[in-house]
Structure formats: C-alpha cells, structure tokens
Amino acid sequence: MSDRIYRVDMSNLSFEIEDVPEAWQGLGGRGLTSTIVAEEVNPECHPLGPRNKLVFAPGMLSGTGATDSGRCSCGAKSPLTGGIKESNAGGTSAAILARLGVKALIIEGLPEDDSTFYHLHVTRENVEITRVPELVGKNNFEVLDIMAEKVGNKAAVMTIGRAGEMKMLVANISVRDPNGKLRSHGRGGLGAVMGAKKVKCITVEAGPDDEVSISDPGKLKAANKKFMHAILAHPVAGEGLKAFGTAILVNILSEAGGLPTRNFRSGECDFAEQISGERMARLITEREGDTAHGCHRGCVIRCSQTYNDEDGKYVTSGFEYETIWSLGAHMGISDLDMIARIDNVMDDLGVDSIETGITLGLAVDAGILDYGDGEAALRIIQDDLANGTPLGRIIGGGVGNLGRLYGLVRVPVVKNQGITAYEPRAVKGQGITFATNPMGADHTAGYAVATNILGVGGHLDPLGKEGQIELSRNLQISTAAIDSTGMCIFVAFPILDDPECMPALIDMINARFGIELDFSNVMELGKRILRTEREFNLRAGLNSAHDRLPEFMTYETLPPHDVVWDFTPEEIDGFWDF
Amino acid sequence: MRKAGYFTITIRLFAQYREGRFADREREVPDGAVVGDVIKSLEIDEDRLAVGIILLNGRHGKMDSALEEGDVLSLFPRIGGG
Q1: Which end of chain B is flanked by fewer CB atoms within 10 Å, N or C?
Q2: Least CB-CB distance to A447: which of B49, B53, B82?
Q3: pLDDT digits (tens, 9 = 90+) for A204-233
Q4: Which of A149, A175, A204 is the last residue of a domain?
Q5: ipTM score here?
Q6: Which residues contact A235 (CB under 8 A, 6 or more apart)?
Q7: Do B18 and A278 touch (CB under 8 A)?
C-alpha cells in the first residue's frame, strides 16, 4: 500500500493521515526524521515544550525483506544537546511501520490534561489514543508484558520507563525486539521528549495483508542476494560479530592505547581482559546463553547475545561494547556479571546505558562513589535514579550537567553529549567525528575507528592528523545515507571493503521505489542530510565553537602514546567544506 | 638466561587466534626475526582467517616490521564492532 504520514496532535488527542509531500518521497529513516524536524520544528523551541515534535520513520528498505534493514529512526530537537537528534534502533517497529505504510509517525503538541499518560495504538488508517493511568510509574519490561496482553505479541512496542516519565536527559525510548527484550533509541534524551508529550507507549500492529509496496520485487530479491552474500563473506560482519559481539573491541582499543580509562586519564586499561569480548563469549558459552542473535528479523550479522549468570539464568541481552566500556574501563567495574546486572536495570528503567555509564564514571571524580564500586552504581540507579531523588536527577541529567554542578574540568562531552569508548587523542579520525557531527559525540556517525584501528577500508595512522578530516567527512556522509535506508550501520564494514556491496544496496533502493539512483546521488543525499542537520543546529545556537572536543584534551597528555588533541579550530571547521 | 642468538618478546593473541594457542606468552625468537616470522611460527592459517591487525608496542605494524628485545606483539584477525 502507498506510504502516508501519520500525524498525532497530543494537544487535542487527535490524528490525521496525510499524503507524503513530494519532497519527502525519496526519503526514509534519518533522512526523513531530520528533514521533518528541520522543516517543522522551530530550532529555538524548548525541547520539552509544545513546539517540539517527535518523529519516527522506518528506513527506505525496512519491511521489504532486505537483509539487515530493520532499523527505525527517531528524531526531535534533543533536550540533551539542544540540537537536532536522530537515534536509530532495531526491534520490530521499523518493519511493522513500513508494512502499514507509515512513512513517518509525527507526534506533536502537549496534552492539556497532563495528569496522566497515554497509549497510542497505530493500525491501518487509525491511531487510537487512550489514557493509561495504570501504566504510570511502570518500567519497560512490565509495560511489554501488559502490552502483550492488550494488543498481542505481534505488535511493535515503543515505550518509556520511569526515567522518560520524569523527563530525564538520559531517558531513552525502548523498542520490543523479536525475542521480547529491548532495543533502544538510546541517545540524546528522546525518552524525555516522549515523556513531555505524555506518551507512555506506542504500539503498532499490521495485518497479514499489509505489505510494503515494492516497484520491482524480482530486482530487489536479486540485489538482496548479492548484498547478503557480501555481508556473510566479510570476516567482521559475517563471522567476528556473531562470535564475540561488539565487546571484541575492548582488548584491541586497550592494546592500541585508545580505550578511555578512568575518565579519560589513560588509553589503556589493566583489567581489559576481564571485560573483553573474548571473555564474554566464553562465559556465555559456558552458561548456555546465546552468543549470536539479531536485534531485528532478517539480520544475518547477529551481533547481539543473551548473557546468563552463573546459574544459567537470564541477566541481559544486547550487551554492547560502549556500555561495558563506560561501566568498565571508565567507571572501574571489572566484574562483567555486575555490569550485566546494571545493564538490565538500565534497560528496564529506560535510560541510555552509554550516557548513564559515562555519568557514573564522572561521578567518581565528583566524589559520589568510588572507582570500581559496582554495588554503589547499582544502588544509585535502582534507588536514586528510579525514584527521582535529587542525586538521581543529577545523574539523570547526563555527563555535562554533572560536570558543571561539581566544578569539574575533565568532562568528556561534545555538544553536551558524552564521548564514548574511543579516545579522541589516540584515534584522531574518530575525534573529528565526535567534534563535528551534528548529533554531538556519537560514535556511530562516522566510524573512523574502522580505518584508524581495525584496518577496514584501508589504514590511516590513528595518532596522526593527516587525512583524518577527509576520512571522517566521507564516513559521516555515507553514514547519513545508510542511516536513511534502515540498514544496520555494521553493513558499512563490507561496504568499505567489498566493491559489490554498495551497488547491491543502491539496486535495492531503486527496486523498492522504481527510481534510478547512482552512487553519486546517494552521496548527495548523505551530504544534504548533514547540511540540513547542521543548518538546524546553527539556527538553534550551536555553531563552530561547539564543534570542539573538551579543552582538557588539548593540554593533558594521554598515556601510553603521550598524545594530545592537536587539530586547530580552523582545521576542524574545514570539515564543512563540501 | 637468554640463549645466544635469540631474544625475548611477548606475544598476545586475540579473538579466534587464541583457539588451540594461548592468550599471552613470552617467546624467544632468533636475532633478525620480523613480525611475519612469528606469525608463520604460530601456524596461523592465512587462507581461513587472515591477520587483520598487527600491533607492535601499541602501534600498527607490518609483516616486515623488525622485532627487538622486550617488544609486545599483539595479533588480531579481522575484527570490528561499534
């Protein structure tokens, strides 16, 4: 069926279904959420006020059967960064929205009666908006159970936990995955925007006859075969990720001197092995967990896992490198079981495990807890954050705010969003991405680690400046385009190495819409998205002065390579010359 | 005591390279040895799982990088995450 725009106005609890404007027709995912936010949201608005909008958009290929196409984008003005935000997640929402023909779901306005929360149930040509006082104060896993009773197991669920209800800046939006667990639109406080709109959860249900319209199904199928082959033949996407998960990066970053340790005081961690992907894989196997499952149907990379405790009981899933790093090397917890327990509590509460973990690491410098004290970290999350105590609110305000409140200088943020898991001084291409990307410090936005450290897409010396701006620019442009397709960002590994992969992806887009894009059109799309996001940020008051890494990195030397951040402001600003 | 004509390095192996081998070990290598010689001695099957990343004392090295007493050589197959 043809795609439509579903628009919900919370101010009068109504909805409209609109035709897709011509300018939005070739877009999906991040390209569409950022275009809508830039067109319809006043950049100067308060992110939690009536003029912000929360936009969900499945990727261009979501729901088509294309391999690894199940990522859904969520966008708004971010209450954390004050700029534009797109955060994409796996789960079941992208495919179901696409099958219903929901090109984008736009939620605007604030309800007059803010004494309770609402449930939005999206079906073909309808959005049912109901008061759900019984869900207020409930966390994510319980909401999933209640929704399974109410609308069945086949519907997609997007929900906020208590952190989102309290509009904390670390609040995320969680999405039910095919295994009944959670994936997250993690970064930028989008859960606070949903909480401000008093939307507790959104369910999306497609019928058996709801299918994505594909202009040339045969061509899509043939291109998908090539695309899937390129993914499976790649040593990282086809083998490494399902064997060890993303935590395989812990050891190599530490060995390369690029694993931020003890709040960015060193690039190597003496207990890296204990929190490594190798160890995690061994424990999972010994405890009869699962080292390889996908965050969405149709994923062949399967980087996710189920992590059990010593008794073989489920602890968490989707247990990622950045979370393990933040609570591990950064905050000092060397016990992987403890990190797993905290990860599950964070999922349930609905907080970004990255921003929260980095904030807890900074809380060590603030004197709130000791380095490595996992029990204290767990208590702060379970008792303080969950109940919104003053300390919980402080931690729930994210890294930048904690730094300001405690007079700290070594505060790892860009545009007020925490820097993740890769030391910019020792992985300089990634530093350029952290500095310049419109989302703030976002590791996925232009993953220069691939070429700086992992030898994917060639090699560029991580400690040198040469070529890094170009590398980051090319990666950010292609990532903006890939984020619009619904594809998992890990398809970038085969794309960087295998010349067959990108043409197959473009063929699938062309087959879906009956168009004739070529490589340069796709790169133009990526450029247009980045420029649109940058323009929004400029109008929101985020300018070149915000495209900077924290100042301490320019004068504090990082061991073991004894490096500083040495790009001049003019060099960084040259990023935007395209 | 060091054997004449040999010196000692530390070899660290990661991901699948540990299977049937080790994680971290000191090893004596003959004078003049380069990284490629060590890889050969480890019987890594380059067709099945090629060496992806060579780190020599934390910096990227090559097959023909010369080794010295006390070097730490870290070897990885192609890996990635994010």
Answers
A1: N
A2: B82
A3: 999 999 999 999 999 999 999 999 999 999
A4: A204
A5: 0.96
A6: B49, B50, B52, B77, B78, B79
A7: yes
